[in-house]
Amino acid sequence: MKTSTPTPTAPRPVAALLAALLALGGSLFALEPVGAEEPSPAETPAKRLAQLRAEAAGGKPEAQIALADELAYGAEATLEQVAEAATWYGRAARQGNAEAQFFFGRALWDGQGVEENRAEAVAWWRKAADQGYASAQFWLASSYEMGDGGLSRDPAEAVKWYRRAAEQGHGQSQASLGEMYSYGSGVEQDDALAVRWFENAASQNIASGQFSLARMYAAGRGVAKDENVAARRYELAADQGYAPAMAALAQAYEQGQGVAKNPVCAYLWYALAEASGDPNANQAGEALAQKLTETERAEGERLFAAAYLEDGAFQRPACPSEPEMK
Question: Which distant-in-sequence residues (6+ apart) come within 8 Å of 91 by Cβ?
Fold first, then answer.
C-alpha cells in the first residue's frame, strides 16, 4: 500500500523518527535479484519453471542450479518454491558442484527451505572452499573467526581462508582480512597491510572496506592522518546504507571533522544510523537533539522521511545547503 510521507507537525526525539519510516510502508533497503532476466511476453513464469524443471530432471548440476535460482530468487517466490530450491541445490551439491554446495550451505545456515543446520552448512562450504569457491571460503573463514557452525574460534584458520578468497578478488574477504591485520587477530598486526586490503575492498565499493579505510585515515594508522579523506569514505559507505558509517558521518558533521559543522546533517545521519541498526546512534542523536532548535529538529525529521522512497528503498538524503567535503 502506498502512503504519502507525513509532514512533521512537532519536533520529536531521534528514537521516534523510526515511526516516519514505518509510515512509508516499506523495509529499509529494497533488494532486487541480481542478473535476473525478464521473461518474454509469451513466456509466463509457469512455463519458464516447467522448462527449467524438465532440464533439471536431466541431472545436470548447471540446470538444477538454474532452476533453484529461479525458484529461490524469482520475483514472487513462495515458501514452497524456496523449499524446492533447497532440494535442487542439494542435488547439484551432491554431484560435487561448488556453486551448489555454497548455496545449499546458505540454505542450511539460514534455514531457508530446509531445517537449519549450521554445522552441516559449514561442511558444505568446506567442500566448495576446497574447490576454490571464493564465497564459500569467505563464509568458512567467518565461521572460524566467530566460532560458529560447530567450529571452535580459530583466528589463524580464518585468516587462511579470508586470504584465499581475497587473493581471488573477493571484496568482502579483502575487507575482513584487513580487519584481521588491523587488530592483529590470527596474524601479526600490520597497519600498512590492513590499509592495503581495505583499499582493495574499497575499490570494489565494499561498504565495510570503505568504512574501515576511513577509520584508518581518521586515526592516521598505516596512512597519513586525513579527516577529509575519512569523511569522504564514510560518506561513500553511508550512501550504501552501512549503519556504522552513517553514525561516523553524523559525528563528523556534529564535530566538523573533514566536513563543515552542520548539526542538522548530524541529526539526520544519526537518525538514519539508528533506523539501520546502529546500537549507539540513538544515544548520540538524543544528546544532539537537546542542542537543536525546534526548526532544526523539524528539518532533520523532514530529511529523514525524504530519505526513503515509497517502497521503502533508501536514497541519498540531501542536507540543507550541504557543504562540499573539505
Answer: 61, 64, 100
